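FYI - complex with zinc ion, inputs then prediction.
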Amino acid sequence: MKRLALHAFQRCGLFSFTRALSAGKARILMYHNFSGPGADGGGLSEAVARQQFDYLRQHFKVVPLSRIVACLAAGKKLERHWVALTIDDGRRNCYEFLFPLLKEYRMPATFFVVSSFIAGEDWIWTDKVSWLSEQPGHREQLAPNNLPQLFRSLNRMRPETRNQRIEEWAAGAGVSLPQKPPARYAACSWAELREMAGSLVEIGSHTATHPILSSITDEESWKELIESRRQIEEGIGGKVSSFCYPNGRLEDYRPSQAKQIREAGYDCAVVADSGLVKNGADRYRLPRVGMERKTESVEMAKYLDGMAHYQSKLWPKRNFLQREPEEIVG
Ligand SMILES: [Zn+2]
């Protein structure tokens, strides 16, 4: 029913209409993982990525995030049909499968990386939980269906409590967490980031250790902001001026921490809450549109064309066409 209705709306021109109506609002798209031939595990497939990029090439103009931010900072009007691509965490699958596509399509993107992850000091704690859920003998609470609920509770814990809990689950499942991330969770190297930064890609900070900011003190979040930038700038030999909140929902940071990002000298920060970027938007809480689950073309068009945006404005409660399965953001 839902899909049939969407197809009907698309056929009668409603999507083209909402695209024109929302042309002055920028879209910042959010991705985490890509896959391709020989890839181990999830991530957006090359075929779906191509479908999305073809649609973007046809109807939108993909620009660097910094261009949208510069426009907002100068108080200028956003140009029509602007889109920015953003990719979180810095996993190697993005270098391997997305970067060739960016070059082929000549599309810029921003990679938000976790500095200790790239430096090989640790792997991302959310990936450790996902890895544990893939192990035979894991506990019921780590079953894939329970993961959204589990992450909600982990996100509220202090990092040391959370890490201890993860170690306990590993012990309970009779496995030990590998020192280095397994292939599907591996990081880009500094050399790979440098190569991308020299061609189409901006590198931003996604903290040093991926803590949920609201679970740590302001003093600790300040260190995350400063240390991650220092480490990334040294690693890539270039400037870092954008930031991405871990998990990025409203409950995942405090207003005082949004203020710290500005005070630390970053130009902007992106969140994971869904929305389009309006003229005059707050540069330190820029909404994004998650594209990883939009694997069907009509779903993709609903979000890119602004149809979903107007639905949520017109029927905030009656979201029968809007609701999606809960997404683990990371
Ligand atoms: Zn993340």
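The chain is about 45% helix and 10% strand. Strands lie at 27-31, 61-62, 82-89, 109-113, 201-205, 242-244, 268-274, 286-290.
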